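Hi again,

Forgot to attach this to my earlier email, sorry! This is the prediction with zinc ion bound. I've pasted everything inline since the attachment limit keeps bouncing my files.
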Amino acid sequence: MDPADSRAVAAFQKFLQTRTDHPAPDYAAAVAFLVEYAHELGMPEPRVVDGLVADKPMFQVVVVGTENEAPALLLNSHMDVVTADADAWDHPPFDGVIADGRIYARGTQDMKCVTIQQMEALSRLLARGWTPARSVVLTVVPDEEIGGVDGMAALLSFTVEEAAARAAGEAPGPVTIAGLPIGFALDEGLANPTPGHYTVFNGERAPFFVDVTATGATGHGSRFIEDTAMEKLIGFANKALAFRAEQAAKLHASGSCEGKKLGDVITVNLTILRAGKLHNVIPSEARAGLDIRVPPTVGYDELRALLDDWTATDGLSYTFAYEPPLNSLTETSSSPWYAAFERAVHAAHPDAVCQLEVFPAATDSRYLRALGVPAIGFSPLAGEPILLHDHNESIAVSTFISGIAVYEALLTELTAVPLPAPM
Ligand SMILES: [Zn+2]
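Structure tokens for the complex follow:
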């Protein structure tokens, strides 16, 4: 193996061994590793942002371009990972064992591979004397797996009010990170099991957590009490489940030319049911909790109309336990950024296919998109099974190494995207 690639693999293993798994991620250790690694790679002096949230430092590298007034390219990744049940793994989940050409560890796909690939690509270009036109901001943030409030949202000082003001065109200047205006962002994606196929995300589904309460008549369990809370809640649940079946049918419809993906449909899951204490007492209240995920093509009003319909019975009501801020889609059809993105992928792999989709779950990109920064979710994991958050999460060593070249091409093309001509 090429010495630079061996170094990259060794660094990847070391990063995987850094325990950033929830619920007690060691962010200080991760940032210390990244600083040392940046020095080893001869990168510009990294910055550690540790004043935003206590014990949640962030890592940044800035490469200033020749056109340093032009909005910069952001390369973002998150350093935290989810927990792992070691008993269910074939290899210890925090060792980074290489077996049969694959690296096994929590975070190999989600998403420590990307952090190392981006740093390798950037340092290799710089070592060849590359000077980008646009500046590059590389960030590695904490807490993505638990909502990003103390991570990307804190880095952006995100507020719903600012997002709404920007959406209304009342923009208080560009979105900045490390003092630089950000023009376009690359953040995490998912593996694609088909060889040569990359899944690329330009939006994601918004999670709504809903509480439904039914109230009704109470009485002795021996009688036919009318209008009970339980009957009403079950009526509601049946409507929600019928809708769920319709959406599942849309997703699974075979031979359909629509070709729906999980990111294109609304998922509804009844996750909480609570009522009753004693067998012989009709409860006067019953509650349900739901997890509903909505694609960016569905307006929040549409979702409210659905819930209004399902709860249109006296004694039924709902509230949002969590309601996400805006959910926006990154425009790709006429975007010079997206054209450059596809050009870069094809420069690295001429036969590659980019499959544009809506991410089924939530990532840090939502904060960027909500502030109007175009963001693409992309991890260069073509021909890899989707193993994020799964037992035996792993990637092929060859996939890891080939991804470095993809980021070199992306950095080259995306930092050369010209400014729009003056009107
Ligand atoms: Zn992730």
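The chain has a mean pLDDT of 94. The CA atoms of residues 189 and 378 lie 4 Å apart.

That should be everything now.

G.
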